[in-house]
Write a structure and sequence with these properties.
single chain; 2 strands; 8% strand
């Protein structure tokens, strides 16, 4: 079965390069972006789309690229390997970004910039 675009959990994103990512937000479609499972346990039809619903000109959906000729198990294996590579790299990337950010001094509601007359009180309604 093709990807169910009328499912609540279907999502697509178009990037500036023209590439379109189509996926299941519940990760229940191992063959995404080409197919959903035949009897998907997470399928929920979007209720707002009705026969009276008219799609505007911006709702044009880019065509899905052709499905590879490889066996389904090979496709699923490659997609699982790619997901594992990204998942393994994520903690290191997040740690690198955290090292680059300056440490914050305290909660945002206690930080004051350029306000004089601080008498040490943590709570103030007005500086007048």
């Amino acid at each position: 079965m093709a990807m169910r675009e009328d499912c609540v959990h279907y999502e697509s994103r178009a990037y500036e390069t023209g590439e379109v990512a189509r996926f299941c937000t519940k990760d229940l479609a191992p063959e995404a972006p080409w197919r959903c499972p035949e009897a998907c346990p997470g399928y929920e039809r979007i209720q707002m789309i009705d026969r009276d619903f008219d799609a505007g000109s911006l709702a044009a959906i880019p065509p899905v690229e052709a499905e590879p000729d490889a066996p389904v198990d090979d496709i699923v294996g490659v997609l699982d390997d790619a997901e594992a590579i990204v998942a393994a790299a994520a903690p290191e990337v997040i740690a690198d970004l955290d090292r680059e950010r300056p440490a914050k001094k305290g909660p945002w509601w206690r930080r004051r910039k350029g306000r004089g007359g601080d008498d040490g009180d943590d709570f103030r309604l007005s500086s007048r």
